[in-house]
TrEMBL record:
Reactions the enzyme catalyzes: L-threonyl-[protein] + ATP = O-phospho-L-threonyl-[protein] + ADP + H(+); L-seryl-[protein] + ATP = O-phospho-L-seryl-[protein] + ADP + H(+)
Amino-acid positions noted as binding ATP in the UniProt annotation, renumbered to this chain: 601
Keyword DNA-binding: no
InterPro entries in the cross-refs: Kinase-like_dom_sf (IPR011009), Leu-rich_rpt (IPR001611), LRR_dom_sf (IPR032675), Malectin-like_Carb-bd_dom (IPR024788), Prot_kinase_dom (IPR000719), Protein_kinase_ATP_BS (IPR017441), Ser-Thr/Tyr_kinase_cat_dom (IPR001245), Ser/Thr_kinase_AS (IPR008271)
Pfam family, one: PK_Tyr_Ser-Thr
Domain Protein kinase residues, every copy: 574-846
Alphabetical list of SMART domains matching this protein: S_TKc
Localization terms from the record: Membrane
Keywords: ATP-binding, Kinase, Leucine-rich repeat, Membrane, Nucleotide-binding, Repeat, Serine/threonine-protein kinase, Signal, Transferase, Transmembrane, Transmembrane helix
Protein name (database record): non-specific serine/threonine protein kinase
E.C. numbers: 2.7.11.1
Residues spanning the signal sequence: 1-19
Length: 880
């Protein structure tokens, strides 16, 4: 008994610790002596010295009158930057990861000047914010949510001649990349994150908040605070994971008829801002059977989100899917649908977009210049990005800029820099270098050959060094023909004339040739190996395809095996006894081939067009094998009789299953996702697994068949065409396909691409989601995609789903699939995803849905509500 009790206790502790570890966190106490570290007693966060992340600045501590016990330990020291216009931290990040980055500034009269400085903060090559210290004893915190593009990120303090920049702490916290998604730029926190109706009246952060966001207590005298003692969102179902202690309280109106008003404010400067707003809701009152809470949110009088029905002790987050702009940011939460209780709001965050228009310098150039910096031990102002922003280019560099493309280093001037040793080979990696000045240093050794690889080089100055040997022929030639301005004076032991090169060349000509030849052999061998390896890999990926091609070589034998006589066909179908269906150019019959059920498709012999298609289909089907494509068992071509024999698909076509009425037969959301994924994989195989790629040209729900295990298989290749067979133009002579599914771009241009299939597949996805006809049977004949898009504009995502699903699905996956479908039906093909992307997305959606059904989480509404808003917007009861 006691032992098991102990074990349970340990388990509980472990799981607690796992949910709250600091992995990925970087907590720098700026100015702390190098190598020192400690755990902050208040937060248990582990702070380390910033010394190894920056190589400039001086360390100071705040003045004794401020370092009272009420000031947190990480604020006792600061690092300040009296020298240099830009000083940068270089922190390691994981590329393509989203981070919450926090910088804290507590002046505390550390310099005894009693002057509050103003300076800029940059993130990478872009300006983040202007830091204006307003109160010597109040820490100022700046927060930004930033998708780190590279394996390190620089945070720079920039002097604006209004006081010396300084910093107290710099902290990085990795976030889930599904949260806080901005369409462009980074998201900087506006003012403060609010814990409405706060229970503790304390700022909440780590360990209560696993992401260490700061939540500030907020009360408003006109509003009623409510709270619960129970944990909210135990198990963290919501990706945003606002802390339970924050969600346990909320504000409401005392009079339930009154709306709850939230405004970002009408400051003039906000007019040009783009905002993202996150409102977190959880029901914290146990409702009686005759009580309900249901409300909508409007922005500036226009519907924004809703209806919102907070779930008891679960967090729902409503947020803008796109930036809110326009200068008037008044939200109103008002009850709807006979709700007996007033709207509530537990927490709110508002961010503004910081545009990141300037790219980092190209990675290759950064790597090369960093190597050169360390080889020669250069200090200067070489911090942060070498070329950006343009006002802070490193001394001695010039760069070329082209719109938003990464800048490129074009000139390097290291004249009179006390350089010793040989000429660094990394210079050859600055591929766009036009000018290189190494004059007046103490460089030794030869003039290396790799300098001649710099194709753009126009100026090369090596005057005044101690270089030896000869100047490479190529450089001399370019100099003689006026392509290169070459200066090598003042190197007593360097020979820069053709004559010494002549000698040298003769002497070495044989070994050089040999080694070049040897190199060539080695390179050839490596290339060969790579090709073989690639082939093998391709074969592994498209194994069935290879098999198909091998089969082609033994064509005669194989085709005879698959060819049937007409009398055999009569036997198989028992004289065409049972009709399965009628297609565009023939009928389909049921049959038995050695006890195996088959579908036999006859092609009307009268149609020449049909005959061509017959041949095309046979050729294709013989080549193509995939678990999501109907396989051809055999065919008959005899006199006027054209017949195809397929495997039998016991469950008919998808269209039928989307329109059934018997509740027992209605496809579940998971079932629908599986079918969509199967069909997508089949199509993806046609596009990418086949050479040349095959465009199906008639993707629709009646051409997606289901076998006895409800595995989806694409059928009817009758209209397919090989790209190669069409010649280079890809223009087909007739527009084929089914109305409603037809790519509008193809329809106009006759230009056939894989993206035409993607369009049709998007329409299929919309049918799978909605179970509605592709073209409405009403007078206006509105297309399904138009209807869905109008529902999306209203923010009514749930109304899109087939009502027979009874809202039994994960709202996230519904949202994602709808977005995917809408992307597929984009007017222009360039905006449509590829089938590979579609397969990836559907895979993720299916995984989400399976996780949900396995957990048996029934609430139809899940942790996160997604609401896409195209309106403008702003924030809340914020006193600015
Ligand atoms: C600075 O903040 C402190 C405490 O927050 C406050 O007491 C003081 O009045 C403020 N000083 C100024 C100049 O606003
Ligand atoms: C999030 O990260 C995962 C894995 O790192 C990646 O597959 C996915 O595409 C990312 N999602 C977004 C929205 O960036
Ligand atoms: C928090 O502040 C509010 C408003 O100032 C006050 O009514 C409440 O009693 C305070 N709560 C605690 C725990 O101090
Ligand atoms: C929470 O617990 C405290 C102390 O046990 C109690 O006084 C208070 O009434 C409880 N609050 C609610 C909302 O249940
Ligand atoms: C609540 O507000 C409505 C509209 O503002 C008003 O008609 C009603 O009398 C109010 N109820 C109470 C109890 O104050
Ligand atoms: C709801 O039911 C409770 C009893 O269960 C009753 O006291 C209360 O008046 C009812 N409220 C409303 C609005 O009907
Ligand atoms: C809000 O409404 C007012 C008038 O109704 C309008 O002038 C203003 O442009 C609107 N603002 C936004 C952001 O839509
Ligand atoms: C940042 O530090 C990493 C190693 O920690 C280094 O490879 C990289 O070149 C540095 N970048 C800059 C801009 O200093
Ligand atoms: C700038 O970039 C564009 C598009 O990437 C390219 O077409 C153009 O040639 C570039 N211009 C220069 C001067 O490199
Ligand atoms: C090369 O450098 C020397 C010394 O810095 C300078 O005097 C000379 O003008 C430079 N030559 C060229 C071609 O720039």
């Amino acid at each position: 008994m006691e032992i098991s009790f102990l074990v349970l206790g340990v388990l509980a502790l472990t799981s607690l610790a796992q949910g709250q570890d600091q992995s990925g966190f970087l907590s720098l106490d700026c100015g702390l002596p190098a190598d020192a570290s400690y755990s902050d007693p208040k937060t248990s966060l582990h702070y380390i010295s910033d010394a190894s992340f920056i190589n400039s600045g001086v360390t100071k501590s705040i003045s004794s009158e401020f370092s009272t016990n009420s000031i947190d330990r990480p604020l006792w020291y600061v690092r300040s930057f009296p020298k240099g216009s830009r000083n940068c931290y270089n922190v390691t990040t994981i590329a393509d990861t989203k981070y919450l980055i926090k910088a804290t500034f507590m002046y505390g009269n550390y310099d005894n000047l009693n002057q509050l400085p103003v300076f800029d903060l940059h993130i990478g090559p872009n300006k983040w914010v202007t830091v204006q210290i307003l109160n010597a004893s109040t820490p100022l915190v700046q927060e930004i949510i930033y998708d780190a593009p590279l394996k390190y990120t620089s945070v720079c303090l920039v002097n604006k001649n209004s006081g010396t920049p300084f910093i107290s702490t710099l902290e990085l916290r990795p976030l889930k990349n599904t949260t806080y998604v901005a369409q462009s730029g980074a998201l900087a926190l506006l003012n403060k994150r609010l814990d409405l109706g706060s229970i503790t009246n304390q700022t909440v952060r780590y360990p209560d908040d696993v992401y260490d966001r700061l939540w500030h207590p907020f009360h408003l005298i006109q509003l009623t605070d409510i709270s619960t003692n129970l944990t909210v969102d135990f198990g963290s179902h919501n990706d945003y994971q606002p802390p339970s202690i924050v969600m346990r309280s909320a504000v409401t109106q005392a009079n339930s008829s009154n709306p709850l008003l939230v405004s970002i404010g009408d400051s003039v400067e906000y007019k040009t801002y783009q905002f993202y707003v996150y409102m977190h809701f959880a029901e914290i009152e146990k409702l009686e059977a005759n009580q309900s809470r249901k409300f909508n949110i409007s922005l500036n009088g226009t519907f924004w989100a809703g209806p919102i029905i907070p779930l008891y002790l679960y967090t729902i987050t409503a947020y803008s899917g796109s930036a809110i702009t326009g200068g008037n940011y008044d939200f109103s939460l008002f009850k709807v649908g006979g709700s007996t209780l007033p709207p509530l709001l537990n927490a709110i965050e508002v961010y503004y977009v910081v545009e990141l228009l300037q790219s980092e310098t190209s990675q290759a150039d950064i790597d090369a210049i960093m190597e050169i910096k360390s080889t020669y031990g250069i200090t200067r102002n070489w911090q942060g990005d070498p070329c950006a922003p343009q006002d802070y280019v490193w001394d001695g560099l010039s760069c070329s800029y082209n719109g938003t493309a990464p800048p490129i280093i074009t000139s390097l001037n290291l004249s009179s820099s006390g350089l010793t040793g040989e000429i660094a080979s990394d210079i050859a990696n600055l591929k766009s270098l036009k000018s290189l000045d190494l004059s007046n240093n103490s460089l030794t050794g030869p003039v290396p050959d790799f300098l001649s690889q710099l194709a753009s080089l126009k100026v090369l100055n090596m005057t005044g060094n101690r270089l030896t040997g000869t100047v490479p022929v190529d450089l001399l030639k370019r100099s003689q023909s006026g392509l290169l301005l070459l200066s090598v004076d003042g190197n007593p032991e360097l020979c820069a004339s053709d004559s010494c090169n002549d000698n040298k060349n003769k002497k070495y000509v044989v070994p050089v040739t040999v080694s070049v030849a040897a190199l060539f052999v080695i390179v050839a061998a490596i290339l060969l190996a790579i090709c073989l390896k690639r082939r093998k890999k391709q074969a592994a990926v498209a194994g069935e395809m290879m098999e198909a091609q091998t089969r082609k070589t033994s064509d005669a034998l194989e085709s005879r095996k698959r060819q049937f006589t007409y009398s055999e066909v009569l036997e198989i179908t028992n004289n065409f006894e049972r009709v399965l269906g009628r297609g565009g150019f023939g009928s389909v019959y049921h049959g038995y081939l050695d006890d195996i059920e088959v579908a036999v498709k006859t092609v009307s012999p009268s149609s020449v067009q049909g005959y061509k298609e017959f041949q095309a289909e046979v050729k294709l089907l013989l080549r193509v094998h995939h678990k999501n494509l109907t396989s051809l068992v055999g065919y008959c071509e005899e006199a006027n009789h054209l017949v195809l024999i397929y495997e039998y698909m016991a469950n008919g076509d998808l269209k039928h299953h989307l329109s059934v009425d018997d509740p027992a037969d209605i496809l579940s959301w998971e079932g629908r996702l599986r079918i969509a994924l199967g069909a997508a994989q089949g199509l993806e195989y046609l596009h990418n697994g086949c050479k040349p790629p095959i465009v199906h040209r008639d993707v629709k729900t009646t051409n997606i068949l289901l076998d006895d295990k409800f595995q989806a298989k694409l059928a009817d290749f009758g209209l397919s065409r090989n790209f190669a067979a069409e010649g280079d133009s890809h223009v087909t002579t007739t527009v084929a396909g089914t109305p409603g599914y037809l790519d509008p771009e193809y329809h106009v241009t006759n230009w056939l691409t894989e993206k035409s299939d993607v369009y049709s597949f998007g329409v299929v996805l919309l049918e799978i989601i909605t179970s509605r006809p592709v073209i409405a049977k009403t007078a206006d004949k509105i297309h399904l995609s138009t209807w869905v898009s109008s529902m999306l504009d209203k923010g009514d995502i749930k109304a899109i789903a087939d009502p027979r699903l009874n809202v039994d699905f994960d709202i996230n996956s519904l949202w994602k699939v709808t977005e995917l479908a809408m992307a597929c039906v984009s007017e222009t093909s360039a905006e449509r995803p590829t089938m590979s992307q579609v397969v990836m997305e559907l895979n993720e959606c299916l995984a989400t849905e399976m996780a949900r059904t396995r957990e048996g989480r029934s609430p139809s509404y899940n942790s996160v509500e997604y609401m896409s808003v195209n309106l403008s917007a702003g924030l809340s009861p914020l006193a600015r």
